[in-house]
Specification:
This protein is mostly helical. The chain has one domain. It has eight helices and no strands. The chain is elongated, with a radius of gyration of 19 Å. The relative contact order is 0.12.
Length: about 200
């Protein structure tokens, strides 16, 4: 019996929303400070604010990618449910890996954990799509082959970018962090998928 995806989407939206909200808990300023100490505290919290903004954008990118796939995915099965569970597990871990890189931006291990977390989410989102569009047969047979390939390619590009950026931490932690900051900007641009979905909704 085919099962609809409504409960998956509801769970996913909840996990994404909570993960985004938890990010801001890393941004704190000590209370009871004098004027000079307060200004210094605001300056010192800058890296945490940047980490919050970047990770919020990263989670948003994954939410949009996950959301867009459900334009085509209409049914689910047990394997697909578990793929979603592990994908959401990776998303829910992002607030923790963000707290590490915000507190220790020069530490290679902190960058490795953050990068591995982002890559894991990307790999699972790619598996999510490949299974649904392939062996799982959870998308209609008439899906545009080019759009299916574009979806796969965009996710793969993000995984490769994160792998390169994370690997660079061994040579230059600053450059590695800079690349991690830039990646969400690429996915903010409109894509063929966005234009297709916009056209479908306007019909």
């Amino acid at each position: 019996m085919n099962r609809t995806t409504s409960r998956i989407e509801t769970l996913a939206d909840g996990v994404f929303a909570i993960s985004m909200t938890l990010l801001v808990l890393n941004v704190t300023v000590q209370t009871g400070l004098g004027h000079k100490d307060f200004l210094e505290a605001l300056r010192s919290v800058g890296p945490k604010v940047l980490a919050y903004m970047v990770s919020f954008s990263v989670i948003a990118v994954y939410w949009i990618g996950h959301h867009n796939q459900y334009f085509w995915i209409k049914h689910t099965d047990r394997t697909f449910l578990w793929i979603n569970v592990f994908f959401l597990m990776a998303i829910a871990f992002i607030p923790f890996s963000t707290s590490l890189i915000a507190a220790y931006p020069q530490e290679v291990l902190a960058i490795l954990i953050y990068g591995a977390n982002a890559m894991a989410a990307g790999i699972l989102l790619l598996l999510h799509w490949n299974y649904a569009a392939g062996r799982g047969k959870l998308v209609p047979g008439h899906i545009d082959a080019h759009l299916a390939t574009v979806t796969q390619r965009r996710i793969t590009l993000g995984i490769v970018f994160y792998a390169v950026a994370t690997g660079l931490s061994f040579l230059s932690p600053k450059l590695s962090v800079a690349l991690l900051v830039l990646l969400p900007l690429f996915y903010m641009r409109s894509s063929e998928i966005d234009r297709f979905l916009k056209g479908q909704h306007s019909e």
